[in-house]
Each structure stands twice: as structure tokens, then as C-alpha cells.
Amino acid sequence: MKDVHVPRPGETLSDAILQHLKYSLGKDAAHATTTDWRMALSLAIRDRIVDPWFASTRATYAKQGKRVYYLSMEFLIGRLLEDATVNLGLMDEVAEFFDDRSLDARMVMQDEPDAALGNGGLGRLAACFLESMSTVGCPAYGYGIRYEHGLFKQSFEGGRQMEAPEDWLTEAHAWEFERPESSYRIGFGGAVKVLGNRTVWQPEETVLARAYDMPMIGWQGRWANTLRLWSARPETVFDLDRFNAGDYYGAAEPEALARTISRVLYPDDTTEEGKRLRLKQEFFFTAASLRDILRRFEDEYDDWSILPSKVAIQLNDTHPAIAGPELVRLLHDEKGMDFDAAVEAARGCLGYTNHTLLPEALERWSIELMRSLLPRHLQIIERIDAAHAAAHPDRKVVLIGDGDVQMGPIAFTMAHRVNGVSALHTGLMKETVFAELNRLHPNRIVNETNGITPRRWVLAANPRLSGLITEAIGDGWVDDLEELMQLEPMADDAQFRDEYAAAKRANKVDLANYLGQQGLAVDPDAMFDVQIKRIHEYKRQHLNILQTIALWQEIKDDPKGDWVPQVKVFGGKAAPGYVFAKEIIFLINAVAEVINNDPDTSHLLKVAYPANYNVTLAERLIPAAEVSQQISTAGKEASGTGNMKFALNGALTIGTLDGANVEIRELVGADNFFLFGMTAQEVVARRQIDDHAAKAIAEAPRLKRAMDAIASGTFGERFASITENVSGDDYFCVASDFADYWRASRDLEVAYRDQADWTRMAVLNTARSGWFSSDRTIRGYMSDIWGAEALSV
Ligand code: CJB
Q1: Which residues carry this modification: N6-(pyridoxal phosphate)lysine (predicted)?
Q2: What is the pLDDT of residues 600-652, one digit of tens each?
């Protein structure tokens, strides 16, 4: 899309939109489609971002500020137009503009494709961080991959998950600036040669990494950073010889092979080829980013020894962990720095965030794979490993062991700070996966509890609540979220509570209408209970659905009883190769089918599972939620961030002592949080008991009855893999936590009956969740890890 429109000083937003419609899109208002309007608006908004964006870059140069580089395989940015409009304070003007033309501004904004360049929490955290880094004025770049296809689109067929490719780039969008001049040649394979006193890697295959930039504007447009995504291109676009010989497919092969690298988010890594591609993706974007970082440094400075004082590089999980060895290679092999000094400089720059203790998620690559793709890096890792062994003769951790290159320990040894994402998770990191490395490097691990951006997750997503808050305490909360504390006394103010409850009710009506459009009628006065996140055994959606079945059975026993009507909402995708998770999805849909069509109970209990959960759907569900399900097996959820979004939007949590739930409960108060389940330590002990699941089932007749119903075919299939798992090994302790979960769920219902008191608790959740702003998290990283200072334009 060519932008031919030059904004003139004094031009109103309305003029700018109309100008773009005419001159950039070649349409007049009478014939404009929703997409035309959306593009015209986007371009008009984009024009207003460019100046602050340039000014931020200039300010960083002028002040020789330290820059932060956030390397992440995922940026789950979702839609950008509404975010940018809200941050520029232009929402009212935009709404008025479309009102005047009998169009709905929100509908226009919702025409934007939802950029799903991430899988879940890790990618969404990266997106919140980009916004917060701009809001607090931290000079920063996000670096990632410009996937042609983001996370697959989910649909249900007969209750089963179907996957279709996502295609965001085929739809018009306004945010990218292609930078053909910023291209780097990235190599793979080949040989390592020693030429004189230099070691030279001569790759056999190369691809080009081409940059695409998106501006990321902070609150009130005070600062804007860049998200730079790399797209893979072939060096030879076309093999003319093969084409001339009649081999038309073969002629296009080099291009197809190169482009595969940035084609899709997270290819299936269950096959060797899949693993190879995944490692290629990781090296591709990491290497391009590092070259870009060093190029920018060299433009300004000529002394490599000051690199760590000017450059902070954060590794978002182990995916970019090859950055350590690659930075050493660049500094030593290419810039001529002494090897040990290169290692020190690299470590001075690098920080590593761990996001999970699940052993299967800590990446490792076979030595053969590493040797065939990155032979020089393997040598460098061996040398760093040897130095580490020499410095710590009693060490038990190795960087290369069991035939694999261990990316977790590599990230740890190559970083000056390693952080966990909640207090509990950081503690467990020290005690479990990184116990040995923590012993050797006792001050390296720090905690930075996750956060979320209030601009998107309250101000934009929940305008009713935002308006109420601003009326009550002014708008200072938007970039100083702890100001929400001023709402605390209003929890006891009946009028405020009524207004707060009215905002929630209106959000529920919106959601009820949305579900209605999808064919499910729900009562907006029912209790809205929501569990939205990736489908995973440790997140225990199956615990929730078992509880739902048990509840349905009790209601059916006594349909005239005094029940709290409720809607159980599920949302989330399962990895395409994760058979058990897909079975959980199938079970939820099968249960929904039966329960929703049961004439005895359907006025009291409904199960909703809207397909294709994504950022946009989250923005719809969270403001309408009253109950937030955070029920992972304790010790397994590193932090969670959905839990924070719900609490802030006034949903009460039913949850375990896991991840950031612990901190949420401490802050909102134990009385305003529905706790259940074993602690992380108790879970570990419980697993030692023989037949712990069978014993738990024997003591929980409701669970037994629910499992029997499944096994007897009440929901069509018999779902043997699920019932056998829960009654067998039950690693995630669904059976053992069931009874207490049931108890907490009933406590919730009792509490819900007293609406005034419920709203009081909800207000307290909002008032006391201000600490979970990602602005606070970013300031923590800046002071504890990056040593970076906020600048202003
Ligand atoms: N997480 O989304 C992912 N993907 C991974 O591969 C590993 C972890 C999640 O990261 C979030 C952000 O830190 C956490 O809140 C969440 O608990 C964790 O599962």
C-alpha cells in the first residue's frame, strides 16, 4: 500500500481520513467498503504516529541512551488500530466521525485482521511489553519473525478441533514499513576454516533476512518504539537454468525453501525435519537481530568494550538462546575481540527470561543437528562449556550432555541475569530446574512478575468500566495503575457499586448477544464463569468440565432447587499434535451439546465454547466475566497473565496457589479470592502415594458419578483416554483436587447470591490489581536487568 498522503499541519483527523480514502485508496465515501474506511482511518492514525516515532529515535541518539532489544519468537499483537487510537486519545473523535456517517467505529476497527504471531501467554506478554516500553519511554526494539501464517484458525466439526491456516498478510493492513535496505545474509551448515589466526565459518546455504518495521506507540503518543520483524528471502529468486530446461517446479525451489523459514509460526516439532526448521527459524531471526544491533552500535561508537553499557538484549524464553554463541562468534570471529572478552561482553548484554518449568519445553538439540546447521556455534558452546567446567570443578550441569545441546543451561550461563515470571515460579526455578546453576551463580536469578497493559485490557477493552473509574478518580490510573487504590473506599458506596454492577451487566448483555449470534442463547443474569487459555493438561480444563458435569447431575436430581444459573465459557486452542488436549476439547463440546439441550436444566446451566479464541475474543470475554477460572496444578503455571486481566476487570478468581495467582490473592485479599487445591509441595508429595487418583475418586462420589456418566456414553463417545488418565496415573492431580474444587465452586455460588457483597469484592479486585500493570514489570526489568533509563522526547 503506497501512502501518497502528506499530513498538513492543522489538518483535522476527519480531513485526514477523507483525504486517505480518496488519494491513498482511490475511493469516494459513497462507495467505500468497511475495509476502505478501516484503511483510511489506519493511515490517518499512522500519520500521527510517525512524528513521535522519529522523535523517539532522535532522542535516543541525542542522549546516547542504552537501547533494549527484546528477542522473541512470538508477538501476539492482535489488532493495532484501536490500541493506537486509544493511546493517541482520538477515540471520541473517531467515533464522532463514523457516527456522522451512520457507521459504527468499532465495527470499522474490528475489520482489522488479528495478527496472531504467537501461541499464547508468552507472545501476548511480549506484545504488552512493547506497549509498556513505549509508555514508560524505554528506548527499545522488539525483534521477531514476520510469519506469513500466524497461529492456525480453529473451528469445530462434530465437536472436534479443525485447523486451517491463518492468513493475516493477505488482508490489507497499514502498520508495516518494508525496509529492503535492512537485509542480512544468514548462513546455515557448511564448514569452519582456520585462516591464519582467524576462525571463519563458511556456510553452505544462505538466505536473506529482510526487515519490516511496525511503530509501537505508547500512552498519549509520548514515545514510540519499533517492532522489527524479519522475513526470509532467497538469495537467488529463480533458477533460470532449471526453468529453461523445462523444470518449472525445480526452478522455483530455492525461493520456496528460503521462504519456508518465515512461513509459519512454530512448525510441528515432532519430526526431525520439523526440529531442523524450528532451529533454523530461531537462528534466522536471532542472527539477523544481532547483526542489526551491532550495526547500530557501530554507527555510534567505536569501542566494543562499552557494548554492555549501550545494549541490553533480552531473550524471551530459550527460543533465541543461540544468541549467546552467535554474539560471541560475531564479536570474536568477525570483530576480532579476544574470546574470553567476547564471552564477557555477550554476557553483559544478555538477559534470559524463563517462562516454564515443564521439562518438555526446555529446548535441546541433538549434537548432529547442531553440527550440521551451526558447526561454528557448536565449537563455541564446547569452549564455553569447558571454561565453565574449569571455573567450577564440582559442577554437575553441562551445556552439552546426553547427546544434546542444552539450550536452557546455555541461556543461563550466557546471561548476566535470569528471571522467572512470578514469585512462586522464580522460587521453584531456584529449587528445581536451575538449582545447580543457581548454586554456582547465586545472584543471577531474579524475579519479575508479569504484567499486562491497562491501555488495551481496561481502557480499550472495557470502556464502560474505564469511564466509571475515570469519573470517580480521574484518568491518572491509565499510566499509573496503582491509583486504582483510590477506588477502595468506594467498594462500600452503594451507588458506586450499582454503577459498577451496571457496567458489568451491560458487558454481559453484549457477550450474550454475541453468543446468541453464534446460536447459543444465554441469560445475561446468569453467573458468567470463564476459562480461556491454551488447552493443556496442566491447565486442567478437564477438571472444570468434570465439575460442570457433576453440577449438571445435581441440578437434574433437583431441578426445582435453589440454583444459581450459570454460563460456563471455555475458549482456547490445542496444539495440532497434542492428542490429549484435542480430546479435552471434544469432551467439552460433547458435554455442551447434551447440557445445552437438556430441557430440565438448560435454564440453569449452559456451556459455551466459542471457536477460534484469540486476542479479540479475549477482549470481548474478559470485561463480561464474573468468575475467572485459574485452576492449574500448583507448580505448573509459571505466572499466567489472563488471571491479572480478569481481576482488573472485576472477575473473582477461583484458583490454586500457582503462578501469579499467589500474588493476586495476596493483593486483592484472601477474602476476595476463592482458593482451593493442593500447594506445589503437596502435589509433589501426593504423587508419591500409590493409587492417589483411585483413592481420591473413592472419596469423591460426585467425581465418580461424573466419570461414570462419561464412561457410559452419556456424551456420545466414551472418552476413555481422559477417564483412564484421571483414574490412573493422573499426573496433574485432577482427582485429588476435585473435592476441594467442588467445595470452592459452591462457595462461589453462595457468594454470588449476595449481589451487593459480590460487587463489593469485584470492586476490591479492580482497586487492588494496579500492581499488575506491565509498566511496573518493565520498570523492574529496566532497573534489575537492563540498566536502562527512561527517556522522553
Ligand atoms: N508460556 O505461553 C507460554 N509458552 C511457552 O512456551 C512457555 C510459557 C507462558 O508464558 C506466560 C508469560 O510469562 C506465563 O504467564 C504462562 O504461565 C506460561 O505458560
Answers
A1: 645
A2: 999 999 999 999 999 999 999 999 999 999 999 999 999 999 999 999 999 99
Residues in CB range of 549: below 8 A, 6 or more apart: 591, 706, 709, 710
Asked whether residue 331 is domain-assigned, the answer is no
**Entry field: residues in the chain:** 793
Residue of minimum CA distance from atom 4 in ligand 1? 122
Model pLDDT, residue 2: 44
Asked, for residue 108, whether it belongs to a domain, the answer is no
Domain count, the chain: 1
Q: How far is residue 502's CA from residue 696's CA, in Å, rounded to a whole number?
A: 42
pLDDT of 369-412, one tens digit each?
A: 999 999 999 999 999 999 999 999 999 999 999 999 999 999 99
Question: What are the angstrom distances between the C-alpha of 142 and each of 154, 263, 283?
Answer: 28, 19, 16
| CATH number of the CATH domain containing 595 | 3.40.50.2000
pLDDT of 3 > 80? The answer is no
Question: Is 576 a domain residue?
Answer: yes
Would you say the CB of residue 472 lies under 6 angstroms from ligand 1?
no
What does the alpha-carbon distance between residue 359 and residue 248 come to, in Å, rounded to a whole number?
Answer: 45
Going by the DSSP 8-state scheme, the letter that residue 589 receives in this structure is H
Q: Are strands 198-202 and 205-217 parallel, antiparallel or unpaired?
A: unpaired
Instruction: Report the candidate in 115, 177, 181, 172 with the shortest Cα–Cα distance to residue 147.
Output: 115
Residue 641 among the catalytic residues: yes
Whether 727 is covered by a domain: the verdict is yes
- Per DSSP, the three-state class of 374 is coil
Ligand 1 atom 10 nearest Cα = 122
> What is the secondary structure of 716-762 as a DSSP string?
SS--HHHHHHHHTT-TT-HHHHHHHHHHHHHHHHHHHHSHHHHHHHH
**The model's pTM:** 0.97
Q: Which domain holds residue 673?
A: 517-762
Q: Find out whether the beta carbon of 120 lies less than 6 Å from any atom of ligand 1.
A: yes
- Nearest-5° Cα angle at 767, 765 to 773: 90
- CA 39 and chain centroid, separation: 26
